[in-house]
Design a protein that fits this description.
about 110 residues; mainly beta; four-stranded parallel β-sheet
Length: about 110
């Protein structure tokens, strides 16, 4: 935790060996960049306790090795992507404070 301000740096998507992304308890705002999930090695994604807004990217649930995802305590909204229900490796999913009506896409 180092309390950076602004959006999540897009440059993180250029880290080819990144497996564990933990950006907990910062002051990131804006939307979650879809480009973060182009790295197929990600297993753990912790973006909790920030000020993120917008919808949850479908690419997050298309990571072939993702086992833990924590998006709690942000200001996310919309529906959970249908890719969430079809993810075979996800063990833990933490969500809270979702804004608006939530449902699974079909």
């Amino acid at each position: 935790t180092c309390f950076p301000l602004g959006t999540i740096p897009w440059q993180l998507s250029r880290c080819p060996a990144l497996k564990d992304l933990r950006l907990t308890k910062n002051k990131f705002n804006g939307t979650i960049p879809e480009s973060l999930f182009e790295r197929q090695l990600l297993t753990d994604v912790f973006l909790n306790e920030n000020e993120l807004i917008g919808s949850i990217p479908a690419g997050l649930f298309q990571l072939p090795s993702a086992s833990q995802i924590d998006l709690s305590f942000n200001k996310l909204n919309g529906t959970l992507p249908s890719t969430c229900a079809s993810n075979q490796t996800l063990i833990l999913l933490y969500l809270s404070d979702l804004v608006g009506e939530q449902s699974f896409e079909t």
